[in-house]
Design a protein that fits this description.
Layout lengths: L30 E4 L4 H11 L5 E6 L2 E14 L3 E6 L2 E6 L4 H10 L7 E6 L3 H5 L12 E13 L2 E6 L4 H10 L12 H5 L3 H16 L5 E9 L8 H11 L4 E7 L2 E7 L2 E5 L5 E4 L2 E6 L4 H12 L2 H19 L8 E11 L2 E11 L6 H8 L7 E2 L1 H11 L10 E6 L4 E5 L3 E5 L2 E10 L5 H12 L19
Antiparallel strand pairs: 1-8, 2-3, 2-10, 3-4, 3-7, 4-5, 6-7, 6-18, 7-8, 9-17, 9-21, 10-11, 11-20, 12-13, 12-19, 13-16, 14-16, 15-16, 18-19, 20-21
Helix pairs in contact: 1-4, 1-7, 2-10, 6-12
Length: 473
Amino acid sequence: MPSASPGSWDPQDSRTWNSWADALPALGPEHTVESPESPAEAAVRLARAGVGGEYVVYERAGVWHYACGPAATVTLDAERITARCGNRSLTRPLGAAPMRQIADVLAQLPHRGWRVYGWAAFELAHLLHPDTGDTGRDPLLHLMLPTTEVALTPGTARIRTADPEHLPLMAKALAGPTGTVGEGHDDVEELLRSGAEPYQNAVTRTVADIRAGLLQKAVLSRPLPLPAHTAPDLTASYLAGRGANTPARSFLLDLGGWRAAGFSPETVVEVDGATGRVSTQPLAGTRALASHPDETARLRADLLGDPKEIHEHALSVRLAVDELAGVCRPGTVVVEEFMTVRERGSVQHLASRAAGQLGDGRGPWEAFAALFPAITATGCPKPEALRAISRYEDEPRGLYAGAVFTADDRGSLDAALVLRTVFQRDGRTWLRAGAGVMGQSTPEREWEETCEKLRSVAPHLRPGSGTAPAEPR
């Protein structure tokens, strides 16, 4: 954590954020309207309707949540937190515990039953783990309190809104056509295999660092830029990709300068406010899913018997347990599931789940700070892995390997790891994928793993207008 400085946040001063959100409108009563049988299709209809401007779609446990129209926002960068509601804007410098400051901002909300939606960029890691890399000047975390929320299940949409004009517009959008999805691109494999040499060179250097004892594992990633003339329609790509993937969470968003559509294979952290249970689901160790079941079974057996993959996975689980122990009651952290195999889109992973009970006085944002960024997107030990990523990756990750999440007033928080995602920002569109590098790694195999993961998204991109993507709202 950054050191406290003069004027920084005092955890005893509950007045710091008093009345910043007094103008926040309360959501009205719930209205139920008919909706398509496919909640993903319903979410896309709402996103395309454009009601309320910025939006987030977040799929969890069979429910698609659609939130739009920022009634208030909270943004954190490397120096400050800014909270905005109506005509009021309040800025405070960061103190020693930025995530506790976020919790304090939200604690001042005037209404009960709120839910916040947002994202955290990977570079937030350099704030939470000082001296590991450059945080940059862009926002590191952005939250939205929506004007309207919709819970989508098959055939039903439950709408709550602070703006009565949104209700008929959403009902109309849900009853209308989804629009065309289109066909994918023909040159996917050629695109995936471009630019191998720089990535393989970075893997070679990282392996040398590991063998020299600087660290045990680092997850190196590579961007895959998409040409402007093939910029995809994110809503159509989300719908096509969700039909072909089996994610732990999925999301579609246009929020705080980022547009993205993703199929997250795992969660960074899940906190149940009712029970105090906190868990994380590391996935590490990968093989492709083949077109024939016998080949998939052979690859699965190879995965379960590969010493490098087993070692990589065990390191991730051990660190997850250690991180949970820092915020949980002593003796409550357990590994509930160990080294099963989960199928996620075009690949299969070794998967485990570690869980515990939050310690007295600990909250969901402290659990988030303890577990972010995900071990499976950084490495072990985490600070050394972050330094290796800073050395060998040529550009900031941004939203890649960060989180998209929801949190509520009951103390629950659910954060999806941002992998298997298509991104749009500043007129660019790109994909990104990584692989866990160990002392036994070969550049060729880690390169191939990135291609396997990119196939969860690239074949399902659907063309847009043929022009550069519009700026996020």
